[in-house]
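FORM 7B: Structural annotation worksheet

SECTION A. Query
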Amino acid sequence: MSDDKKPWPSELRLSKDKKTLTVGFDSGERFALAAEYLRIASPSAEVQGHSPAQKQTMPGKRDVGIMKIEPVGNYAVKLIFDDMHDTGIFSWDYLLRLGREFETIWGDYLKDLEAKGLKREG
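SECTION B. Predicted structure
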């Protein structure tokens, strides 16, 4: 897919309770992404590590919210969570991937929590 054909964000809206970020794209795709999901899938080194083997499973994020959204150039946003995590830069491509691959990413996260004896509750 060439750069000029990539879906471009047409909507970015944080719910009043700060628990859901809705992202719409000019392709017609629209995703309501829970703050918990965005937090556990943060593209930051703290969560992703510097290699796949270093990826962290983040427990206790069920009640996390998004305090602030800051633009990063014209390609991404920085999400500031109420647990003070603020180092992940969410590119439009990454947000699109999180929406499209929700079932796989979320399912893998739940399996990792269970395998490690961790809980979603804080």
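SECTION C. Observations
The first helix runs from residue 35 to 40. The mean pLDDT is 93.

SECTION D. Sign-off
Analyst initials: ____
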